[in-house]
Design a protein that fits this description.
Strand content: 5-15%
Number of helices: 17
Number of domains: 2
Largest sheet: 7 strands, mixed
Helix content: 40-55%
Distance between the termini: 23 Å
Order of helices and strands: HEEEEEHEEHHHHHHHHHHEEHHHHH
Shape: elongated
Radius of gyration: 28 Å
């Protein structure tokens, strides 16, 4: 049994008896369970209870065993001096408060619905993939839809919190933030950390000074990516090498540790192609941040990102090696990934920063993008959960990573439904 289960019982008062008594024999009435504390200190604060004829307001601490009070060292922590009730599954020792009086204690073991306990044990018997894989298909559509929307908001909020920290490091420069997160996204999963390092090596202040010169933008990106250090009989390559030496001196750029990977990537996703496309994007779309914030539909965003790599890359994937000639455009699938992972979180965060609500607008963006395809979503489909759009796929990815993988069934609407079906 996990302590989270006891938190769940207390928070939702899944208790069978209306006549509660403490270990000391005093009548207990719960007026307000309080608010769950996710930080250090007692588990619930602002709790209100009546013991005997006396009403108390304070904190509630919950343990599997009463002796865990001493195991966790609460007797030496002043933060626990305001505990008005100790809630335990098993009362194996007497706990005393700061005044050496026996702490009022409620034992849950005898006042919990046995069916709830059975469902809990059944749910947490670890299965092959997720705990509820044999039951999740039985959840009604209303519960699923409600929970998916909450998961979507949680995912957005989590990403926004991460972006906020990045924005603060950039001294609240929104354009610099977009530059960094877009660069990272262009690196895809394999090269994302190296692309972020690249964006940090070439500050947006430097990068924007060359926005009118697409060739120079490429030179900066390739040079700081350590892709201009070869000796090649290629006039374009040699021109880039020469220009990079000038720009490196001009902007006092430091030697870079960026180490890009080509292995396990399709040629169309090679970092050479992505860097060229990135430079073309910024060269062709001045005031990109403002344009993205103003774009309310996927078609408007697709238009902004309707770019190709520069001409040299029409018949190259790497320097010095010719290939079949074709334009290297950004694909719709790639732009969709940018919208889901970069643009929507940025728009959500920016709207909050200026005191606006834009979730309905973002929800329409999600609905207009097809569901992603990956192993997680394939498995959910096998469990009879369909994905009609990215609303479904994004929420299910969040469900898997934030709840299923961490076994947070008791904080999950699906887990709650299975524990205590109405």
């Amino acid at each position: 049994m996990q302590e989270d289960f006891l938190h769940y019982i207390w928070q939702y008062q899944k208790i069978t008896s209306l006549l509660l008594k403490t270990v000391l024999g005093n009548k207990l009435q719960v007026v307000a369970v309080g608010e769950l504390n996710l930080n250090s200190g007692p588990d619930f604060y602002n709790s209100r209870i009546v013991i005997g004829n006396q009403e108390w307001v304070g904190t509630v601490e919950i343990h599997l065993k009463a002796s865990d009070w001493f195991v966790h060292g609460h007797q030496n922590d002043n933060a626990y001096n305001n505990v008005i009730l100790h809630v335990v599954w098993e009362n194996d020792v007497t706990v005393f408060d700061a005044n050496q009086n026996a702490l009022e204690t409620l034992v849950l073991k005898d006042v919990v619905d046995q069916k709830l306990l059975f469902n809990y044990k059944k749910l947490l018997q670890r299965k092959k993939w997720i705990n509820c894989e044999n039951e999740i298909h039985t959840i009604d559509e209303f519960t699923l839809s409600f929970w998916k929307e909450k998961l979507l908001v949680q995912r957005l909020q989590r990403k926004a919190n991460e972006l906020q920290q990045q924005l603060e490091r950039l001294e609240n420069n929104w354009e610099a933030l977009l530059y960094q997160i877009l660069t990272t996204s262009f690196g895809l999963k394999i090269n994302a950390p190296e692309f972020l390092l690249l964006a940090q090596n070439i500050s947006f202040g430097v990068f924007k000074k060359e926005l009118s010169n697409q060739f120079n933008l490429e030179v900066l990106l390739f040079g700081q990516s350590n892709l201009l250090k070869q000796t090649l009989e290629d006039s374009h390559y040699q021109s880039m090498q020469k220009e990079y030496l000038y720009l490196k001196q001009k902007y006092q750029l430091q030697d870079s540790l960026v180490n890009l990977q080509f292995f396990r990537l399709r040629p169309s996703s090679f970092p050479t192609i992505r860097l060229s496309q990135f430079s073309m994007l910024y060269n062709s779309q001045k005031s990109l941040f403002s344009k993205l914030i103003a774009s309310k539909t996927t078609s408007a965003i697709y238009e902004l990102f309707s770019i190709s790599a520069s001409e040299y890359w029409d018949d190259h994937y790497t320097f010095g090696k010719k290939s079949v000639k074709r334009k290297k455009q950004l694909s719709k699938a790639f732009i969709d990934l940018l919208i889901l992972n970069t643009i929507i979180p940025l728009k959500f965060m920016y709207a909050k920063s200026v005191g606006k609500e834009n979730f309905e607008e973002l929800l329409q963006l999600y609905k207009s993008i097809n569901a992603e395809k990956n192993s997680v979503l394939t498995k959910f489909k096998e469990l009879k959960l369909e994905t009609a759009s990215s609303v479904d796929s994004q929420s299910l990815i969040e469900l898997k990573t934030a709840y299923c993988d961490k076994q947070k069934c008791l904080r999950c609407e699906i887990g709650n439904k299975l524990l205590y079906p109405s």
